[in-house]
Amino acid sequence: MPTPTPPHRYAADPLVVAQDGVATVHQLMDLGCASSAIAAHCRPPGPWRRLLPRVIVLQTTEPTPQQRLRGALLYAGPDALLTGPAALALYGLESVTAPAAPAKVDVLVAHRATPRSHAYVRVHSTVRPALRVPVRNLACAALPRAVADAIPHLADESAVATLLREVMEKRLCRPDDLMTEARAAQLHVSPLLGGEVERP
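Above: the chain sequence. Below: its structure as tokens.
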């Protein structure tokens, strides 16, 4: 009978390392780990833990912010993109950057294959193609789209104005691109993007 692969060997696999120590159940099975072994490794005291349905973090300590983002993408599927405040924080927008991981992580997925929102992952089905941009080794929507997706989740118009002002002052994208995304999302912003926003 072959000797089972020690759990730490899976954690050192190049795929798992590239994914920040997070993997799906199917990926682990493809690496040769039986489903029963995965279940056993996720029971206390570990050495693994379930992060989301079908998503495992190969450690027992609390997941890092990067691992939470990676887990959200793996949960939502191979074409998923981070968007909204979580993506904007990766882009370096200080107006949406908090010291702790965001309570919710927004992901865009194609309309034809939409998993349900779960735990901290907020899934948004879209029929509008979104440009895929790698940011810190994570798949994100382009910045104008991420801004438009963030606006409905900001606290108030002041927060929206602060975000738009930072984007424009840092010249992170063209005003026309922001206006295009805002119109597509049925958000009404002033032509000068001064923060006069009406949210549907």
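Confidence is low (pLDDT under 50) at residues 194-200.
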